[in-house]
Amino acid sequence: MNKDDIISSGLLELYACGLTSPEEARQVENWIKQYPEIKQELDAIEVSLETYAQANAVEPSTSVKDKIFSEITNDKQKGNNNNVPVTNFTPTEIKIYRIPTLFKLVAAAMFILLIGSVVLNYSYYNKYQNANDQYLSAANDLQAAQEKIKENQQANLAMKTDINVMTDKNSLPVVLKGTPAVPDAQAKIFWMKNTGEVYVDPSNLPAVPDSMQYQLWAIIDGKPVDAGMISTQKGIYHIQKMKSFGRADAFAITLEKAGGSPTPKGTMYVIAKI
Q: Distances from the Cα of 266 to the Cαs of 22, 121, 216, 235, in angstroms?
């Protein structure tokens, strides 16, 4: 809760009037220690309440003061306070204030309205906080749902691409089998006879560390030619488009450092002749 929310919550007015619960009072006192602005606002509220009370005080008439001191004199003469020293007062030395009944009723009504307003503001503030929390939760859920939908759309698009490549009438599938160094490895390429485009399906290749990457080679006239790097991000492999070749004698895949190499340097995993 920021300083503006604290000031507008109504808790400071309740605290100044002594109407907060012990837990709320401790919370306000912690805010006072934490934020100098909150202390200044509370001081201003207390000064306003005191100023309001003093500004509406009413001085009684002289007759009322005379009556009061007459009663004090009579009590003294009757000996009701023989053992209690009585100080002589001069009526002009003391000002006694009396609050008329009408003003008491008006002040009480205003005080009730003030407290009611504070309580209402506090109630609305709590409702606002709850609604805001629910909104943020719903927004997070919506964002998560949108991200999931996006992932599904990307997966569906990749699957559609895979199907199109495999079912194309010009597609020539070639299975690349494991070498003696890695006999269980296997991959497949799809060579489009009409365009020379090459696609690779590395789904049956072993997972590799982040620092390594598979690289496809086209063997032309006995020499390996770079055919592109194979993406194995997060271990999810899809059919990927590689470089195009009008002709090739064979295709092979080696394991190289991430980013590839101009010539094969790593272990050859699979190979197949065309």
A: 73, 72, 12, 20
Spell out the residues 6+ positions from residue 162 whose beta carbon is closer than 8 angstroms to its own.
201, 238, 239
For 167, residues 6+ apart whose C-beta sits below 8 A from its C-beta are none
Q: Are 250 and 271 in contact (CB under 8 A)?
A: yes
The tokens for 77 are: 């003469």
**pLDDT per residue over 29-84, tens digit each?**
988 888 888 888 888 888 777 776 666 555 555 665 566 667 667 665 665 545 54
For the chain, give every domain's residue range: 3-58+99-141, 171-273
Token pair of 56 as six digits: 């509406």
Strand order through the sheet with 171-178: 223-230, 212-220, 250-257, 268-273, 171-178, 186-192, 198-201, 240-241
Tell me which CATH code domain 171-273 carries: 2.60.40
Please answer whether residues 261 and 255 qualify as being in contact, where contact means their C-beta atoms are separated by less than 8 angstroms.
no
- Residue 68 phi, psi dihedral angles, 5° rounding: -65, -45
